[in-house]
Write a structure and sequence with these properties.
- By secondary structure, the protein is an alpha+beta fold.
- The protein folds into four domains: about 5-170, Histidine kinase-like ATPase, C-terminal domain (Heat Shock Protein 90); about 205-315, Rossmann fold (3-Layer(aba) Sandwich), CATH 3.40.50; about 330-415, no CATH class; about 435-650, Trna Endonuclease, Chain: A, domain 1.
- About 40% of the residues lie in helices and about 25% in strands.
- It has 20 helices and 23 strands.
- The strands form four sheets. Strands 1, 2, 3, 6, 7, 8, 9, 10, 11 and 12 form a ten-stranded mixed beta sheet that branches. Strands 18-19-20-21-23-22 form a six-stranded mixed beta sheet. A five-stranded mixed beta sheet has the order 13-14-17-15-16, sandwiched between helices.
- The longest helix has about 35 residues, at about 295-330.
- It is elongated, with a radius of gyration of 37 Å.
Length: about 675
Amino acid sequence: MEVPAMAKVHVTAQKDFLESLTNARPFAALAELIWNGFDAQSDHVQVNLDLNTLGGIEAIRVRDHGAGIFHPHVDNLFGKLGDSWKKAKGRDNGRSLHGKNGKGRFKAFSLGQSVTWNTTYRDNGKAYSFQITGNAISLDDFDSSEPVEANGAGTGTEVTISNIRYEFGSLLADSAPLEIAKIFAAYLAQYPYLVLDYNGHIVDPAAAQRDRSNYHLGDVALANGTKVPVAVTIVEWAIPTDRAIHLCDADGISLHEIVAGPQIKAPGFEFTAYVKADHFRELDKQGSLVLADLHPDVETLVKAARNKIKEHFRRRLAEDQSHIVERWKKEEIYPYEDKSTLDPVELAERQVFDIVAVNVQSYLPWFEDADLKSRKFTFRLLAQALRENPDSVQKIIGDVLGLKKEAQDDLAALLEQTPLSSVISFAKTVANRLDFLDALDGLLFNKETKKRLLERDQLHRILENEAWIFDEGFHLAGSEQRLEEVLKKHLSTLGKREDDPDPVTLSDGSRGRIDLMLQRVGQPRAGEHDYLVVELKRPLKKIDADVLRQVEEYAIAVASDERFKGVPARWTFVAISNDMDASAQRKSEQLGRPKGMVYADATGTITVWAKTWSEVINNARARLHFVANQLSYQANDDTARAYLAKAHAKFIPPPDSAKSAPDTDSAAPAS
C-alpha cells in the first residue's frame, strides 16, 4: 500500500513543557482519549486492548464514531496549546465538552511511545480520510498525511497507541471497567444514551452501584459575594474502591479529582462523590484546579459538598443500624434491656454502642458465622468497655476499622501467629524507649536539670531499669557491686561456687566498685560469656585522665586476678559522661583502634572505652529507627515527660527550689 505524503505540524511550545504533559496515570490518560471521542459527538466509544503472545498489551486502540478531525484545522488542533475550540464553545449539540486547552492528546504518550490518529471526516457531502502520527521522542512535531476520498466510510477517529511503555496490569484487571465507570459515572447518567465499551465490556456504572443520591445545594456564596449553584451526586459502590471527590461541571464532566479525606466518616461504605458546578469549568480554564486545595473558591464549594456528604452518610448509617439492631434484639444478643424511657446518658451510650457494634459486624468476617452465645458475649464485653473506658475503645476500634482491607488482612494474619497482647506490648516497649531517649536527653543536657542530676542516687537508679540503652543484647547482672561480687556472679554463671571470695584489689591496694554490670543474653560463642561493665559519671563531671585511669585499673585488676585467668569470657568496660577533656578525647581517637577504645589487652578479651552520652543516645535511636518508622511513632517533650514521670518519678531531679543532698561520685574507689 502506498503511504501518502506527510506534512509537518509543529507545536509551538518548549519541549520540557510538552514532556510534563505526558505524565498521567493510565486510566487518566485513557479517559482523555475517551472524552475526545464523546466531545466529537460520538454516541459510542470503544476501547480495545490488543495483546501479544505473552498476554501483555501490544497496542491500545480508542475508536469513536464522531465527526472526525477536519483536515484544514489540523494545524490549529495539533499545533497550538493553551487554547481550544472547546474552551470557547463549551457545549456542542446540547452536550457539555470536556477539553479546553488542547493538552489531552499528549497524555496518550504516557501509555506508549507512538500514537497514530486515523480519522475520517465529511466535507461538502464527501468523506475523506487521513492520518496523523506522533512520537514521544519529538513531541513538538506531528506528521499529517494528505486527505484521500473514502467513499462509503463512516466518520470518526481511531487512536492507536503502540510501543507500550509498561505492562499496565491495571488496564487488564477485572476492576478496570469500574475504574473507567467512576470517572464517567456522572456524565453517563446525564446522557444515558451514550455507550462506552471497554475491551468488550459495556461500562455501566449502575451495575456496580449500591445506591445513588442526588442533592441540590442551592446557591453557595463565594468570598467575593458571588453565588454559585452547586449539586452533589453520591454514588455508593458495591465493591471496594478508593474514596474520591470529582470536581465536575454542571453536566457531570469530571475536571479534577481530590481525595475524600478522613473528615467524612462512612464506615462500611465505598463511594465516589461528584460535586457539580459550572464555576469549576471557569476555574479550570484559568488553571486553578491544578492546585485545588489552595484556591478559596474550591475550598468553599468542596466544604459545602463535604457537609452534605457527611449528612448523607449519617442518614445511611442510621438506616442500616436500625435494621441491624432490631435483628439483634430478636436474636436476644443485644446487651441492653428494652426500656420505654432512657436518660440522656443511657441514650448516648446505646447510640455509641450501636455505631461501634455495627462496624464490628461489618469488619469482622467471622462475626456473622459465630454462634449466638459467642456474639452475645462479644457484645456484653463491648458494652462494658464502652461504659468503663469509652475513650480507649473509640480509639482502638476507630483505628482498626479505618485500616484498608489489605492492612486488615495483614493484622488478621499476624494475630494467627502472635497474640494481640504481644503486639501491643512490643509497640509499647518501642514507644517507651523512644520517649526515654528524649527524656534522658533532657535530663543530661538541659542547662538547669543537669546541675541537679545526681549520679548515684538518680542517674544510676534510672539506668538500672533502662540498661537496654547500652546494648539490647545484654541484661543487668549487677549494680553498685565490688569487683569480688562481680567475680562471684561470673563464676556462678560458669557453674562454679565461691561463697566468700577474696577481694579484688586495685594497684593502690583499694577495692574497686563498679556501677552497672551487664551480661549478654545467651552465649555468643560456645562455652564463652560476654560482660559489659558501665562506669557512670554525673553530667558535670568530664571524662578525664583520672576517670580513664580508674576504669583501666578496674580492667587490669580483672585481668590480673588469678581467678579470671583462663576463664572463657570477654569484658568490656565503658566510662560514660556528657563530655571529655582534651586528653581523654585524644586517647579515645587512636590510630588503628575503633573510635572510643582507650585500652585493649593483648588477647582482646578485655577492652576499655570512653563514650559521651550523645553517642550512646544517638546509637540507641539508630537501633530503633526502623521500628519507629514502621510504627509511625514520634516522641516529643510531652510524651517523654509523661514516661519519665510514670517510670522514674522518684529519681527525677527536684525543682530549683528544693535542696538536694551532695552526690557521692563513684569516681573514687571504695576503700
